[in-house]
Amino acid sequence: KDKKVVITGASSGIGELMAYEVAAKGGKPILLARSYDKLLKIAENISEQTGVTPLIFKLDVSDGDAVEKVFTTIKSSVGNVDILINNAGYARFELAHEATMETVESMFKVNVFGSIACTQAVLENMLTEDHGHIIFIASQAGKLATPKSSVYSATKHALLGFANSLRMELANTGIKVSTVNPGPIRTEFFRIADKTGSYEKNVEKFMLDPKVVAMKTIGLIENPKRELNLPRWMGIGTKLYQL
Ligand code: NJP
Hints:
Helices cover 47% and strands 14% of the residues. It has helices spanning 13-24, 36-50, 64-78, 101-129, 150-169, 189-193, 198-203, 210-222; strands at 4-8, 28-33, 55-58, 83-86, 132-137, 175-181, 227-229. The protein has a seven-stranded parallel β-sheet, with helices on both faces. The site of 5-hydroxy-NICOTINAMIDE-ADENINE-DINUCLEOTIDE PHOSPHATE has 31 residues, from helix 1 and helix 6. Keywords: Oxidoreductase. One of its GO terms (cellular component) is membrane.
């Protein structure tokens, strides 16, 4: 309650749903994404439904200078944040030899560098206060791999490496670090990742309900865990997908 929670990639999917969940629990959502119009609409709806008015900022997390500016503005508007959820991310599913270096760099810039930049932007204040919680939305693709996801999988492996090392560095502080590793979730993600729709069709029966993923992730704030593995994926029975 009353916690200030920054969520990156809050304009759709689980980021948007986590924003509702935070507000419903009496926290203050601070929502970041490139699509400002979507954030405006989401903030309006949240305000109507819960009476909590989220703060919203337009941000491309792959722009390091913009990240610094937005977090400075957040601090001057509401003070130090309690929780950062590094959720902004995307994939392009294609064969390794088909991925251009432009795609490779762009995916790393958003999924990895963006999360690192946002983390650095809150860390100093968290260390001063000896208080905070940083949650990384990684993926089962950061632990396992499937064909056509080599670059995406590499970004999520990198993100987990960063988070796991950070957790060790912060072990004797009041700052917690959690990672969330979901399997496929029913969001816009697949339409961006694979315009042909074939990947989505393949994993259709293993899809997680985004509301459940959002609820479980926000649950980490009250009951922190190092790692939240939301059911394992492909090739494992659908039964495991009942959360
Ligand atoms: O996807 P989607 P999800 N700067 O597409 C934002 C991971 N995950 O909710 O900027 C800032 O609905 C984008 O906003 P906008 C996945 O890797 C997913 O499923 O306005 N924000 C939007 O709000 C990702 O890390 C699955 O376009 C940027 C949001 O990111 C997280 O879950 C499985 C941005 C994406 O919302 C949320 O994805 C899994 C940028 N440069 C992990 N680029 C899955 N869905 O199957 C994008 O294991 N965003």
